[in-house]
Amino acid sequence: xxxxxxxxxxxxxxxxxxxxxxxxxxxxxxxxxxxxxxxxxxxxxxxxxxxxxxxxxxxxxxxxxxxxxxxxxxxxxxxxxxxxxxxxxxxxxxxxxxxxxxxxxxxxxxxxxxxxxxxxxxxxxxxxxxxxxxxxxxxxxxxxxxxxxxxxxxxxxxxxxxxxxxxxxxxxxxxxxxxxxxxxxxxxxxxxxxxxxxxxxxxxxxxxxxxxxxxxxxxxxxxxxxxxxxxxxxxxxxxxxxxxxxxxxxxxxxxxxxxxxxxxxxxxxxxxxxxxxxxxxxxxxxxxxxxxxxxxxxxxxxxxxxxxxxxxxxxxxxxxxxxxxxxxxxxxxxxxxxxxxxxxxxxxxxxxxxxxxxxxxxxxxxxxxxxxxxxxxxxxxxxxxxxxxxxxxxxxxxxxxxxxxxxxxxxxxxxxxxxxxxxxxxxxxxxxxxxxxxxxxxxxxxxxxxxxxxxxxxxxxxxxxxxxxxxxxxxxxxx
Length: 479
Ligand code: GLU
Description:
By secondary structure, the protein is mainly α. The protein folds into three domains: 1-68 and 238-324, HUPs (Rossmann fold); 85-237, Rossmann fold, CATH 3.40.50; 379-476, Arc Repressor Mutant, subunit A (Orthogonal Bundle), CATH 1.10.10.350. The protein has 21 helices and eleven strands. The protein is elongated, with a radius of gyration of 32 Å. The N and C termini lie far apart (80 Å). It binds glutamic acid (GLU).
């Protein structure tokens, strides 16, 4: 079994394409298949090297590895379509020689006009060059007249596509839209033509791709037929839609993998979520590692209906994966995000950073969430949130702040926090929220955040002393 992921390097890796890559990767591992990475870069204007590199980098980040590809080599290379033009030329010559394709000398505008005319009179569009005698076409080409090459679509023929999800899908060749271009007038072959040549030459046994490619498939099957090439088994994955059930796009939320990474998503969570878009475990469980999915997923068990991309759920899933991470891996994951929030971590002892991260992980769904809380430990004095300021302005808080200053005086030792709270409680009679909100606000600057008892020793006794004095200045000395 050989499968492939065949991105067009015309931009960042889109989440929909990442999903196709993830499914190919999981299925390849499941069935011990070879995964080929093929770069479909014959659209020279839109393709770029940077995009190819960033797609590969994003795939690696997701944990997807391939067996053959432009960077890896393999027996079926080259793996960039732009490096295979000679191969396609041979096939084009064959199609021209057998009459399955013909040269079309009409310009774009001319063709458009003819198409419109055919539509108006409800006739199927027929390219006038279709019936040019071969010798005549040859002569015109020799004379230097530019031409595109069109595939001669047979009339009223049923093309059957067998698909592991959709079953057998039948297309009538008359609905394909006429003789399609396989080589543009600039000499570049087009996707629908070369994809099937490459699938055959690279001995791809199973094509797994998005359902948006299903309407293209009959064209590819017809080309294969005309060339006597084998047709792979198809699996067209149900579409991924935005919450309003239109095609998933930027206006729904983040759509490029690189932005997910930069926002602090974990590759494990994305792989889990993307796999679950078109597959469900029998047990109903939702949190899986790639290995666990591999052991359960089956090519014939993928979903038929479109999946709605649930951004909230992905975020939740990210939080769950984050909490499952081994503590020793957290430092390297979080530090870039702490830096990104403006804190210089270089001067801080690694052990302290690790303790802060371990505590704050419970408050994070995304790695970037740590930026909201890091200041509790890393700022000199708190930046009070509006809610915290409102609480600290209350009369009850004034008593608590002053009692805290009083209690703090003689305190020392690692457990000073517990004794501080006990002393304030005793002095003011406050308890529950009316005790903990002001204390939390005073020491951390916010009302939500990590566990207070665990936070206080991490803030440290001297910093707490300083924060209480600062709080007195800010809220108790105004009148
Ligand atoms: N290059 C195509 C794309 O990026 C994929 C082709 C295929 O999977 O057949 O949409």
